[in-house]
Amino acid sequence: MKEKDAEANVAYRKQSKFSGGLFAETKGYFKYIDIFSLILVLILVAVGLIMVFSSSMYIVNGESGMSSDPMGELIKQGLAVFLGSGLALIAFILPKAVYREINLVLLANGFLFVLLILTLLIGITSGGSTSWLPIFSFSLQPSEFFKIVFVISFAWILTYQHREVNLSKDQDTNRKLTVLVCMLIAAIAIIAAQPDWGMVIIILAVAIVMFLIDRATWRQMALILSAVFIAMALVRSVAHLIPESLHGMHYILDRIAAFGNPFYSPDEYGYQIINGFVAFSRGGWLGVGLGQGMMKRDNNLPAINTDYIIANIAEELGFVGVFLVLGILFLLICRIYYLSSQVRYRQDRLVLVGLASMLLVQSFVNVGGALGLIPLTGVTLPFISMGGSSMVTSLLMMGLIQAIWAQDQYAKAVKPDLKLVYPSKNGGMTHGNG
């Protein structure tokens, strides 16, 4: 019995720590890449580059008064694709032990925490939010990278709060868990102080989804989702009741009021929503033609190449174009959810669920804001909108997703009987699916 326990203990340590050569099995991973999701991502990136070029035509810079250079915007977005692809490749070849190792998770959180502090102190302010950190001639949005680290961290927390794993935790692990939770809360507070409420809402929504999928029953999830939709309907119903005396007191109140009735301030907070509706109506079923849109001219629709790029797609490619683009994006998200159901370990499942939910919630917030379904928050549409940090992190997420899937399938092929092992109450070992 002691020999079996000793063997199980060794297996448990090997699954939790680095073992052997760090990249010894990397070549075997490429055989198990999920080709379907890879093709979907390539299509979305190609569409994104085309629409960035198209939507950047005729845009007038508010500071210089000069028209933007669509080719220059395309080159910048292309560089982001190149950098994101490189980081995705690195994420793919790194062993899963990297994100399972709590010390590395804490290190990543600490590094991003410092960047968020620097952003708050010396960052670039745009659209009322100080979210960009200047680096030479570029700008970096640390909160975009934090959302990936948050998913990995929260998956670690949920995994190590399960009863079986909880039994095996020592005081050192408990201390690290406490530090991790405090760092996550502090980082979210800093993002809220920038203020970037769109990112805060996305992160909190993803945390709720991860928690529900890990802990709640289907009935509980249905009740909570119903409550969310009812709350959204109530907000929309009462948004137009905000007294005019409160208008102008805070931009959040103005955005909520514009969400309820964009015509209360047609030249300011309702301007984007109204012109977004115009873009959708001009496009009809098939659109006015690629590059032929009028709403991007002379800043008729601000942020049409970033937050409102779906409106440009609607105007130039019509309802059919919007349906195809969002359909491909939704198909990719569903594919990631499916992959999460096929991996063996709980922590892997939670990371995949979190990343898929991140894409889903961010897409809903972006498109919902453009359609007037929810208040505007200023977030990008993954893979499509102009924005270097957004594109890099979207591709980095896909690299991590492919890594988890390919390494899990490789392990199944090489060690089909391998199971995760937990220490039990009596000092022996119990088996589970992680």
Automatic annotation (TrEMBL):
Location within or outside the cell: Membrane
GO molecular function, one term: peptidoglycan glycosyltransferase activity
The protein's Enzyme Commission number: 2.4.99.28
Catalyzed reaction equations: [GlcNAc-(1->4)-Mur2Ac(oyl-L-Ala-gamma-D-Glu-L-Lys-D-Ala-D-Ala)](n)-di-trans,octa-cis-undecaprenyl diphosphate + beta-D-GlcNAc-(1->4)-Mur2Ac(oyl-L-Ala-gamma-D-Glu-L-Lys-D-Ala-D-Ala)-di-trans,octa-cis-undecaprenyl diphosphate = [GlcNAc-(1->4)-Mur2Ac(oyl-L-Ala-gamma-D-Glu-L-Lys-D-Ala-D-Ala)](n+1)-di-trans,octa-cis-undecaprenyl diphosphate + di-trans,octa-cis-undecaprenyl diphosphate + H(+)
Gene Ontology biological process terms from the UniProt entry: cell division; peptidoglycan biosynthetic process; regulation of cell shape
Family annotation (InterPro entries): FtsW/RodA
Transmembrane segments annotated in the record for this chain: 35-54, 74-94, 106-125, 145-161, 173-191, 197-214, 221-242, 317-338, 350-374, 380-405
Keywords: Cell shape, Glycosyltransferase, Membrane, Peptidoglycan synthesis, Transferase, Transmembrane, Transmembrane helix
Topological category with respect to the lipid bilayer: Multi-pass membrane protein
Assigned GO CC terms: cell division site; plasma membrane
Major localization class: membrane
Pfam families hit by this protein: FTSW_RODA_SPOVE
Coiled-coil residue windows: none
Family indicated by similarity: Belongs to the SEDS family. FtsW subfamily.
Biological role stated in the UniProt entry: Peptidoglycan polymerase that is essential for cell division.
Protein's UniProt name: Probable peptidoglycan glycosyltransferase FtsW
Organism of provenance: Suicoccus acidiformans
Source lineage: Bacteria, Bacillati, Bacillota, Bacilli, Lactobacillales
